[in-house]
NAD(P)-binding domain-containing protein (Pontixanthobacter rizhaonensis), 817 residues
Amino acid sequence: MPETYRVAIVGSGPAGLSAAARAAQLGMSHILIEKTDHLSDTIYKYQKGKHVMATPSNLVLRSDVDFDAGKREFILDTWDRQIEECKANVRLNSEVTAITGTTGAFTIEIKGGETIQAEAVIMAIGTQGNPNKLRCPGADMPHIQYQLDDPGEYFDEQITVVGSGDAGIENALGLAADPAQRNIVTILNRSAEFARAKPANVTLLEEAERDGRISVRRETTPTDVRDKQLVLETRDGAETIPCDRIIARTGSQPPRGFVEKCGIEFTSEERSAFPKLSPSFETTQQGIHVIGALAGYPLIKHCMNQGYDVVEFLNGNADLKPADEPILAEKFSALPGNRSVDEWLEVFRENIVILRELSPLQMRELMLDGSVAAFDAGDVIFVRNDPGSSMFAIAEGSVSVEVNPADTSITVPIGRGSIFGEVGLISGRRRGSTVRAAEPVITLELSRTAALKLLATAPTADRAVRQITIERQLLQMFGSGLTPQDVTEMVEAAEAVEIRAGQNVIEEDADDTDFYVIQRGSMIVEKTIGGKPVFLSYLPAGSYFGEMAVIDGNRRSATVKAAIKSEVIKFPGDAFMRLLERNPKVRERALADMASRRQINAFVEERKESFSGAVDMYSETAKFLIDNGIGEATDVLLIDETLCVGCDNCEKACADSHEGLSRLDREAGRTYAHLHVPTSCRHCEHPHCMADCPPNAIKRGADGEVFIDETCIGCGNCQRNCPYGVIRMDPKPPKKPSLLSWLMFGAGPGPGEASYSWRKKTAQKKGLEQAKLAIKCDMCAGIDGGPACVRACPTGAAIRVAPEKFLTFTKLAEDVD
């Protein structure tokens, strides 16, 4: 009769090793089963020489094997030696194919037919064996690999790393570490943020980017893998780059089929969901415990603590608290109610919608990154126009949002379980409203980094936040006394769709009847006249379109396409019609908007014969404006060259308003016909410069202006990321004497931009620091009268406008007339 072990541990990663070492230390009958010929395959597969981090630094390590930050090789050697010293019972080259039975009598089947008996099972198999494959044409090409063993093996190659997590960043850094290898390394990130990666890795990547060792492509995805080439979908459209090799580090998924066959349930049907677990790591199949990455806790220190804890639980130590207990206890001590850590975790998880499907382990990790607070009725949580990009969730109580700054009595309530402040996660804008506690309230505040990490790793949370955002966008868009219940049907039917730059969302003369809201990006509306597209209007984020065909049942009257890479929310037309039928005021507003659009269409039809000379010019003008950043702009400086006399008053006024440094270059930039776009900030809807600023020095002001504050460290990331060349790196100049001082006493360099020699000489004389800082247009924020460049133009040639103001049919009509 074969021996029955008290516990069988499947997988020898950090969690499994720690569990085996604890069982050996306690004298517990055990076996550690590993399918490879070596221990800790996860760390073993790290690239050679990789520095392994030991985070979180404030978390105590519980384990009978040591672990501290260090080189991969040193850590593996330490673990091999210590596992041997503690006499852990290890069985290598044994792949588990099935686990059957119940508590006290499990059978573990090994490939080849042998079986192992155990009273309990600890599953610590991780997820690395199930990498996510690229999903695009050419994904089976031989030059794609999902593992990087030794970066030193590659020379003179153009290598693209796909993936924004720690593995992708570390692979890219390794491939670019030795200049003698002469590799050209690019890393792709589908979003603007590296939310999944450790801050230290992001910092190293940013340094490599600044040094020119790595090209970092944000908001970029691969769409076609070819021999020696890779086609990318970027924010501005398709682009093809040379590529000899692709390292795809796009994450991995739990081996769900195998785990479910063991009788274990998952938290949801999402591909990336984790098993349901109790606080003692027990699954829905009693007697089987899951720890480590498979439990949703990928950090090594967490995994090792779990390995220690689960064996202690099996040994009867029911009172053992997790290693993070003191940290969380201190965090919750400021809250009323005298509840335990476990009770507070359950309050937050059960009451807050976006957290309901998180496991207890995921909740603990999230709380380590979050801040909790209690407010009394009337307390201000944040004030309109305050800087801030964190997101709040309400665990108890409710808040009031003051939507009208002129009348604070006009408020919108947000109750328990919901969120607020989420707009800052996307736009970086200042707070749009003042929020007060309507009654005693308890909140969870997640920093931008923590919130984005939650949304990136918990699909259910991402879906819940998206639904809340859509609901609020609909309520804000239509107003007229609508309630959340009024738009429930539309929210539930909503579908988020990513649109490539230049891709059609609606095609003229089509008979579909969907309704759309622009969530991110912008759209161009065109109508075909004489076989050529005629530009009708521009639609920024927050606009809606498609309602005309829904309401009157006719075919589409125009084409709507993305100006830049965008995201739209698609709603079924019948759901939109039912909303209009139930709410006459909303219908009236929609009909009014539709009437104005019909006027434009009618005007085009009536005068299409006279457009022969104007259509081409105007369509090309619209294309020129979009190509030069208007598609993502919120405010642009334009110069009408038929009115400009070249006096340079605009540049001088800009310099005089900004300590002698002009933020614009009138002569630079591109011109089409009589319209010139000088080198001056567009104040993009989603600023490229803001996406990668280490000190978070780039902010958006109350009026939409994108500005750089005094915390700038001069890294130059913003200058490199701006596609329009509107940011310069320059030493901060000393304050210029006034114009009167110059006229009367000759003090200072006079009006306009101070010369570099004057700035340097004066700065040295005053002992000022001459480190370079990023300098760009701030729309003269805080200066009475608005932008100085516009005020100083004697002929009215210079104008600053939002794109929807000049990209309209009115301009075309004036030209034709």
Confidence is low (pLDDT under 50) at residues 611-615, 808-817. The longest helix spans residues 584-606.
